[in-house]
Amino acid sequence: MAGAVCGLANVLESYRGRDRVIRTLCYSCQLLGGVLSQKNGTGQNWGKSLLIVSSQLNHCRTVLRLFDDVAMFSYSMKYGLGKKEKDSFIRWISVITNISDQLYYPCEHIAWAADSGVIQAKSEKWWMVSTVFWGLSLILGIVKSLRSLLLLRRNNGRHFKGEPPQSRGEIKSQIRSEVLCILSSISDLVNAIHWMPSGFLWGGCSPTWLVGLMGTLSSLIGIFQAFGGSSSGAV
To answer: Which GO terms describe its cellular component (predicted)?
Structure first.
């Protein structure tokens, strides 16, 4: 028990760890709140309360992301044009993904500032633009993972000069990581399209509980990759 508490405390002390926990709680509350709000009586009241908690946690994450630009810029500069990447396709996909991720943040900041009354602007337009960049990043992430899976399958058993040979367990771990990244990105992409304007695919049509389910699934995968398995990255 003491070990579990210490482990949770260590997770919450780091920014990324705390964000993962808040994200999971946010979508879990949305999932349960969406289900309970459809019921009558006490269940409906509990559902509304959980949806309020979910909204506040989401707002908390939005405010905290005001400080993510520098970290993203540092990562993008470090990656550069990806000259160390062995596959040119993955290299350029990663570069475009980094650009998309970098542009996502200022657009979201403007939308937040407009909603908060800090600036005079139409927040809906900026929320849509930020969602477009997020969706683009997710799609590119899926393509990148599919390409990685293809290369892992093609190069299975091959040994490249200057590199230590990979064990079967390492290859399986990489394959599992890429599959989980694809599932996580697809789950988030379902929600990203839902938050697009009505008329664009299923924009605005997903029920609250489904948005919560997709977000919870993606969040749990992220937690597993960070603390229970190898991780491969995402926005």
So the answer is: peroxisomal membrane
User: At a CB cut-off of 8 Å and minimum separation 6, what does 215 contact?
Assistant: 23, 26, 27, 30, 31, 187, 188, 191
Q: Is residue 234 part of a domain?
A: no
pLDDT band with cut points at 50, 70 and 90 for residue 149: very high
pLDDT at 164: 62
* Residue 232 covered by a domain: no
The pLDDT of residue 60 is 96
pLDDT of res. 231: 38
Least confident of 89-103, 115-129, 167-181, 192-206: 167-181
Cβ neighbours around 107 below 10 Å, total: 19
Q: What is the pLDDT of residues 79-127, one digit of tens each?
A: 999 988 989 999 999 999 999 999 999 999 999 999 999 999 999 999 9
Is residue 71 in some structural domain? yes
Q: Residue 235 domain-assigned?
A: no
Whole-angstrom Cα distance, residue 80 to residue 94? Answer: 10
Range of the domain at 13: 2-227
